[in-house]
């Protein structure tokens, strides 16, 4: 199939992009790796495509203090290769799992967040880290915490007249450790289950632990698991038992031809135990080497 007819504009400023969306019938185009297939299958029929790739401020990737700011037109591949992005290790762990290199050369980080596929890696990373997503709309700019940004499957806090302008990730500090893993039928396929984990250690003890699961519900599922990690410590058997209980609570996606709900729960439990354990080990190593 071919897309339904649409108008195309390429504004040079965020205010102009917002103005083009004022009637509520437009759609923002950045990388197009999710949007173009939707248009081709006529699952979406926007009257106007608003191409934001000519807006200079949206092409910037920079570290400022304890935050890494990724503009809405920054390609995923560009983040993979940027020296500043190394300050957010979880991004570097997750990005190689996002589709294939050719897709990451066009797809954007913010585009993946705005698309909000339940099996996507970057929304889970944003939730795990407590990233902040900046939106511009008719009333000005506002910031939404990633953990409140995702409303449901492919549904977010972005309004019809809004433009996602950037996402800000907190940079890692000494004593922080991370883990990331997913199971898919083939590399680049949608994840059957996946987890992003972050653990902070202070003076050898767990100070904080967070995780976000993906491919297991209609949106990324975030949990603070500090109490769990404090209780089980380095005991792998206790950790596996605790994550099995966690999987029964969090995994609610229905079964399909790729796997039942029970199968996804087993995958998630194993991944969570593995990545939390790896994050804890990295956190202790990071604290010792500071």
TrEMBL record:
| Enzyme Commission number(s) from the entry | 1.2.99.2
Listed PANTHER family:
XANTHINE DEHYDROGENASE SUBUNIT C-RELATED (PTHR42659)
Task: State the SUPFAM superfamilies in the record.
Answer: CO dehydrogenase flavoprotein C-terminal domain-like, FAD-binding/transporter-associated domain-like
Q: Which UniProt keywords apply?
A: FAD, Flavoprotein, Oxidoreductase
- Report the residue ranges that make up the FAD-binding PCMH-type domain in this protein: 1-174
**Looking at the keywords, is Flavoprotein present?**
yes
GO terms of molecular function: FAD binding; oxidoreductase activity
- Supply the source organism for this entry: Pseudonocardia dioxanivorans (strain ATCC 55486 / DSM 44775 / JCM 13855 / CB1190)
Tell me the enzyme class.
oxidoreductase
Please identify the protein, giving its name as recorded: Carbon-monoxide dehydrogenase (Acceptor)
Gene3D superfamilies reported for this sequence: 3.30.465.10, CO dehydrogenase flavoprotein, C-terminal domain (3.30.390.50), Uridine Diphospho-n-acetylenolpyruvylglucosamine Reductase, domain 2 (3.30.43.10)
Q: Name one Pfam family in it.
A: CO_deh_flav_C
Q: Which PROSITE patterns match?
A: FAD_PCMH
């Amino acid at each position: 199939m071919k897309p339904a007819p649409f108008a195309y504009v390429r504004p040079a400023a965020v205010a102009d992009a917002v103005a083009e969306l004022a009637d509520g019938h437009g759609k923002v185009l950045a990388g197009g790796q999710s949007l173009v297939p939707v248009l081709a299958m006529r699952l979406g029929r926007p009257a106007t495509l608003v191409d934001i790739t000519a807006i200079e401020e949206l092409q910037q990737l920079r570290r400022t203090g304890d935050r890494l700011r990724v503009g809405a037109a920054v390609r995923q591949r560009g983040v993979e290769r940027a020296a500043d992005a190394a300050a957010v290790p979880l991004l570097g762990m997750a990005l190689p799992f996002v589709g294939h290199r050719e897709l990451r050369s066009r797809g954007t980080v913010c585009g993946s967040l705005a698309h909000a596929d339940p099996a996507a890696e970057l929304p889970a990373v944003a939730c795990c880290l407590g990233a902040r997503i900046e939106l511009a709309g008719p009333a000005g700019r506002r910031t939404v915490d990633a953990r409140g940004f995702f409303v449901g499957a492919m549904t977010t806090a972005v309004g019809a007249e809004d433009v996602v302008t950037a996402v800000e990730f907190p940079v890692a500090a000494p004593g922080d450790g991370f883990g990331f893993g997913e199971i898919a039928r083939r590399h680049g396929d949608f994840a059957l289950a996946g987890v992003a984990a972050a653990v902070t250690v202070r003076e050898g003890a767990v100070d904080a632990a967070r995780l976000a699961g993906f491919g297991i519900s209609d949106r990324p599922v975030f949990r603070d698991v500090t109490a769990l990690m404090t209780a089980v410590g380095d005991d792998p058997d206790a950790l596996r038992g605790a994550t099995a209980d966690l999987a029964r609570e969090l995994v609610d996606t229905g079964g399909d031809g790729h796997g039942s709900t029970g199968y996804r729960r087993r995958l998630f439990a194993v991944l969570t135990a593995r990545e939390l354990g790896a994050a804890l080990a990295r956190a202790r190593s990071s604290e010792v080497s500071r």
